[in-house]
Amino acid sequence: MTNEHMHELTSRRTFAIISHPDAGKTTLTEKLLLLGGSIRSAGTVKAKKSGKYATSDWMEIEKQRGISVTSSVMQFFYRGHHVNIVDTPGHQDFSEDTYRTLTAVDSAVMVIDGTKGIEAQTIKLFKVCRMRGIPILTFINKLDREGKEPLELLEEIEEVLGIESYPVTWPIGMGKRFQGTYDRFAKKIEVYRGNEESLFVDFDGENISDEVRQYVDASMLEPLSDELMLLEEAGNEFSVEKVKNGELTPVFFGSAIANFGVQSFFNSFLQLTQPPQPRMSSAGKIDIDYPHFSGFVFKIQANMNPAHRDRIAFLRVCSGKFERGMTVTLSRTGRKIKLGQSQQFLAADRETVDEAYPGDIIGLYDAGTYQIGDTIVGDGQAFQFEALPKFPPELFMKVRAKNALKHKHFDKGMTQLVQEGAVQLYRTPFFGDYILGAVGELQFQVFEYRMKAEYGVDLEFTPMRHSIAKWIPKDKVEKVSTDSRIILVEDLEGNPVLLFENDFVHRLFQDKNPDIKLMSILES
Ligand code: GDP
């Protein structure tokens, strides 16, 4: 392997930002893109939020609602690193794609609104990252506003999320009295100066120099020293190993909107995270320096251009080097495919890529060839990566074709769209009724739209009251007694699933059946 190739491999960082809506993910993303000089893209992120997608040819439904149904990928170059940010859709477009995206990244940045603390969507996304054991770095945002006490926030992280925390930076005041942050590693105060660029001042944590006095309100310094001492004595010990395994989250404080603390955070991020990590496959661990090309499809986006009915399969490159025009094998079918057209995603702009390395994400034109979780390999290789986990939907609808004569189109559409991972499909055991499950309401709307637009089938939905799906081991099914509040269905592969009306019913069930281990995420 050439040095150049090795550098390509080790300089990559592929991550997602997880947060609850309004915590500041978009603002932080913009500031990161600015760091890398992608000003054009920074504008694009904003445009997406305000729904001004003038030139885009995304699905009709996206245009109508001014949102993006699926996530995009932004790549930029910063301090010798190729950085890939994989966007996780939030707000109303929160869906299984949001979860699946997290299977394609090597680390995550968790943005917390300092005025609100840990919120619901953050918890859900955190769990997926935790399950994968990837590094999670925390950015506590909006320090320019009066928020929760920093110690309280740390406690919340530990208690609600169950992960150890280590504040790398520590805030000096907040809101109107926000003075800056102290970096415990660099032993420097980053002085907050509103819209002006930050200034850095040395401080050992105890001895207050004139320079320190010049920039930080004297009344804040003693409490700061006390707090730092408390952190040293009572706080967790820092461990690179624990960060690597996702057992400890380094915490940083800042204000994305003021672009404060963002650059120092990101510099630490690059140091504390690793190059793209190996993936398990049927041929064992595939490391990034494995000599042959391989990757897996984690998302399929349909109809980016309705005129062409094309789909884009998002592929995470895991080993080797992707070159446009190369011939690969789809492991599931053994079919050979020439990858002629491929794209890289820079926000809404699509650019053709000629080469890509492990950690990169590329979009492949797809005329219906790929399925979510598919492995693609080069050079006559034949292995498959581990299947992607399945995530529990929270909304359920019974569905059938309005016109029973259309059942052939209905079946075909159902099969194809479900394979794409647009929604999850369940069947009831005796009558074989179709039940759709989704993580977000929008998935149903997109599904309905596409069944009509692409298969000419009008759907009739009957909402269900159930809101919790749990996989149950096959050998325990017999023990379960169901009623209208707990129903038993099967997923597409025939795995039994229990749908509970609400958490109360679910907990009652668990209390009565302590020996049945229900699973919220199904890993194969
Ligand atoms: P997202 O929904 O997580 O992408 O959040 P946005 O980045 O769109 O931010 C939500 C709102 O919070 C917007 O009005 C932002 O201007 C505001 N915001 C973001 N970062 C900060 C911050 O550091 N301080 C303050 N005061 N507001 C912020």
UniProtKB/TrEMBL annotation:
Q: What's a BP term from Gene Ontology annotated to this protein?
A: regulation of translational termination
Q: Which GO terms describe its cellular component?
A: cytosol
- InterPro entries, A to Z: EF-G-like_DII, EFG_III/V, G_TR_CS, P-loop_NTPase, PrfC, RF3_C, RF3_dom_3_sf, Small_GTP-bd
Q: Which residues form the Tr-type G domain?
A: 10-277
Q: What's the chief localization of this chain?
A: cytoplasm
Listed A to Z, the keywords are: Cytoplasm, GTP-binding, Nucleotide-binding, Protein biosynthesis
Q: Does the keyword Glycosyltransferase apply?
A: no
What domain of life is recorded for the organism? Bacteria
Positions of GTP binding: 19-26, 87-91, 141-144
Protein's cellular compartments: Cytoplasm
GO MF terms held by the record: GTP binding; GTPase activity; translation release factor activity, codon nonspecific; translation release factor activity, codon specific
Which Pfam families is this protein grouped with?
A: EF-G_D2, GTP_EFTU, RF3_C
Q: Which family does it belong to?
A: Belongs to the TRAFAC class translation factor GTPase superfamily. Classic translation factor GTPase family. PrfC subfamily.
Q: What does this protein do?
A: Increases the formation of ribosomal termination complexes and stimulates activities of RF-1 and RF-2. It binds guanine nucleotides and has strong preference for UGA stop codons. It may interact directly with the ribosome. The stimulation of RF-1 and RF-2 is significantly reduced by GTP and GDP, but not by GMP.
NCBIfam families, alphabetized: prfC, PRK00741.1, small_GTP
Note the PANTHER family from the entry.
PEPTIDE CHAIN RELEASE FACTOR RF3 (PTHR43556)
Q: Which HAMAP family match?
A: Rel_fac_3
Q: What is this protein called?
A: Peptide chain release factor 3
Organism encoding this protein: Ectobacillus ponti
